[in-house]
Amino acid sequence: MSPDAESRFSAYLMAERNASRHTLASYSADFRDFASFIAPGGGSVDWAKVSKADVRNYLLKLGSSGASPATVRRRLSSLRSLYRFLAREGYVEDDPTRSLHGPKLSRRLPKVLAPQEMERFLSCPGKAAAEGAVPVAEAARDSAVFEFLYSTGCRVSEATGLCWGSIDLRRGTAVVVGKGSKERLVILGAQAKAALGRWRDVSGGGEPSAPVFASRTGKALSPRDVERRMKFYLAMASLPLDVTPHKLRHSFATHLLVGGADPRRVQAMLGHANLSTTQIYPHVSVERLKSEYARSHPRA
Q: Which residues on adjacent β-strands are paired with residue 131?
């Protein structure tokens, strides 16, 4: 693919697909891997001459080398997106990915913490501070971030991007920015509100533009920072260390559904669609959502 075509495809992803830098990097890595299969010596690839057999053989090679079905399907999806763009822009005449299908995915239930395990985990920052293992301010921040993640089901990137101006502790809500720069309203349970209030008081935070979950220097925590803090408390709670912040999102959804919440409302809380309260739920007010949340969430 020529540099011009490559740059135009990246521009297309950003402008029309609203792709993040992470997504762009993922596409780029997929294309490099495919290119190394087509031209193992590091030569350039003539994308117009790639055949359906080339793509099929690449997918077979991925499978035989141990790549998961999800990885194989993602690589095929990346190539399909590329060739649709190349065909639309006139760089190629034929799409070699057309009619090709990736391997079927096996259904796996997401790993979640049981409510009792979640209680044990969420109590750890307070215990760590009481024992002198973690500074009081740091423990207050850690408690706030994990209570927030479990209370809202937010992605860790949504939490680390949160500013104080997006939180309404009195009302018990927050506005987060999710995938595709889409905003959604999330509900804060009583425990999360209390933890956020303690963290705000200890840190002296609250400026609207300031990050909610920040280090001692005032810089926003990164998702990796949150993951490292989580592993510390998982070890303290004698819980599996492979539990990630995203598993708190799975736990949030599972516990709500087990508690009897409407799956459509849980979908709204998770932000799995382009949701607007007035468009998707024209007869459901914020107070009614909060009522269902309070009935279903273990720490509401």
A: none
Q: Based on the domain organization, do 79 and 134 belong to the same domain?
A: no
Per-residue pLDDT reduced to its tens digit, 159-192? 999 999 999 999 999 999 887 788 889 999 999 9
Q: Are 62 and 69 in contact (CB under 8 A)?
A: no
Contact 236, 127 (CB under 8 A): yes
State both tokens at 137.
Answer: 């301010």
First-to-final CA distance of the chain? 53
As a whole number of angstroms, the distance between CA 164 and CA 212 comes to 5
Asked if residue 177 is part of any domain, the answer here is yes
Closest to 205 measured CA to CA, from 290, 140, 278: 140
Long-range pairs for 65-73: beta carbons < 8 A, 24 or more residues apart: 69/102, 69/103, 69/104, 69/105, 69/106, 70/105, 72/102, 72/103, 73/102, 73/103, 73/105
Contact 144, 206 (CB under 8 A): no
Most confident of 178-187, 202-211, 217-226, 249-258: 217-226
What confidence tens digit (pLDDT) does each residue in 267-284 have? 878 876 543 322 332 333
**Residues 159, 219: one domain?**
yes
Q: Active-site residue numbers?
A: 155, 179, 246, 249, 272, 281
Q: How far apart are CA 287 and CA 300, in angstroms?
A: 14
Q: Where residue 48 sits, what CATH number does that domain have?
A: 1.10.150
Q: 168 lies in which domain range? A: 115-296
Q: Which helix (H) or strand (E) holds 293?
A: helix 286-296
Domain match, 134 and 215 both: yes
